[in-house]
Amino acid sequence: MGESSGISRRSLLKAVPLAGLAAAPGGILAGQPAAAATAPFPQPAESAARPVPGFASPVVEETLDVRFTDVSVPGHGRITTRTYNGTIPGPTLRVRGGQTLRLTHVNGLPPNPPHTGGHNTPHHPNSFNLHTHGMHVSPSGCADNVLREFAPRTADEVAAGAAEPRYLSTVHVPADHPAGTYWYHPHLHGAIAEQIVGGMAGVIVVEGDVDEVPEIRAAADLVVCVNELKVKDGKVPAFTSGGWVTGVPSVFTVNGTVNPTLRLRPGEV
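The structure assignment produced for this chain is given below.
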């Protein structure tokens, strides 16, 4: 699927290794016990737009706090991985055309390990940035700019007690933006693979005219976010080469659990 269009939230968006649909609280949480195979259908936390001084239209404001978190993965027990706000997936961001995403990124990861290879070898695994996958927004400045780097503290800064760095992304969504389901994730060259298979991804819902169709407005609106995790010895292995995933099994989670149950009543959509 290309990045030129979104899709209806009543069909499934799959952008390997993540899929999404749309709305409220759940997912894999730090310290949460591993869910059973018949777990209820959880929903990620959600942020919606609200009026903000200085902005003509409502703004979705969210802090995305990235750090290593111990989470429970059904069938694998507790693992250590990078997360947004301590959960897999990250919070759902709900926005409309003409509104703005204003995201504060906190890098609570440890200093990057030394790197002596070239630019096209894995490096800076604890730096990241923001990509709003599939959205029709600016790729420059402080918007969806994959050339930015949200670096962690250096070892000297940690020793000196410096505050964890914070970075701001401001993404203006065009008024005529197609309604649909999209997703956000880091897209820093040299680090993206290890971060995404560790769970760094979340859903963006762009609402629009489709939501005013009576049958759609009356239907249940649920997020379906599928993450593919690579887990070995209680953690996501360090990305060292293009073949690093060989022999590492995939764990597929739906909204942070495995095989959740979605219950419908007769006639329900």
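Interim note for the steering committee: DSSP finds three helices and 15 strands in the chain. Residues 155-159 form the longest helix (5 residues).
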